[in-house]
Amino acid sequence: MQQYGDNFGQGFSFNLRIPIFNRRQISTNIQNSKLQVERNQLEAQNIKVQLRQNIEQAYNDARAATISYNAQRQQLQALNLAFETTERRFNAGAANAVDFNIAKINRDRAEADLVRAKYNYIFRQKVLDYYQNKPISLD
Q1: Which end of the chain is more exposed for a tag (fewer CB within 10 A), N or C?
Q2: In a domain, 23, yes or no
Q3: Are 129 and 55 in contact (CB under 8 A)?
Q4: Are 55 and 131 in contact (CB under 8 A)?
Q5: How far apart are CA 114 and CA 132, in angstroms?
Q6: What is the DSSP letter of 23?
Q7: Considering the domain boundaries, does residue 84 fall inside one?
Q8: Does a structural domain hold residue 50?
Q9: Residue 133: closest CA among 51, 67, 53
Q10: CB of 120 closer than 8 Å to CB of 65
């Protein structure tokens, strides 16, 4: 215990922190935040431009599908008429079986193309409905 009493000392400590570079860090953080805001605004603008392009493309696709569907309907009408004519000629003996089969195949292909064009038209219209926030139904 004597040794402890002989070596006992008192001390005082003082710690002072002076933020010399703190202002530079704050201004850097402010600049970074401003840059992030600008970046976010540019990204939002890019998204709006991309959305507009998507809507315009959907509109053009719908118009093209409408034109294609109408053209397929007209083609089917023409091929139906050609088939009926060839069928009458075949029944009368004026056309051979090859001509009859070609007319039938052409008509059948036109029917399949019309179905494809019809559902492409419906799909393109539903895409436009989606962009217009209309409910999508299969009526």
Answers
A1: C
A2: no
A3: no
A4: yes
A5: 27
A6: H
A7: no
A8: yes
A9: 51
A10: yes
Q: What domain count does the chain have?
A: 1
Q: What does the block give as tokens for 52? A: 């507009």
Write out the residue range of the structural domain in which residue 38 sits.
30-75+108-131
Tokens of 80: 């139906």
Q: Give the C-alpha separation, 82 to 86, whole Å.
A: 6
Residues 6+ apart with CB under 8 A from 128: 58, 59, 62
Phi-psi label, residue 16: left if phi above 0, alpha if psi -120 to 50, beta otherwise: beta
64-119 per-position pLDDT tens digit: 999 999 999 999 999 999 999 999 999 999 999 999 999 999 999 999 999 999 99
Largest Cα–Cα separation, the chain: 139
DSSP letter, residue 54: H
CB distance 56 to 122 below 8 Å: no
Rounded to the nearest angstrom, the gap between the alpha carbon of residue 97 and the centroid of all alpha carbons in its chain is 49
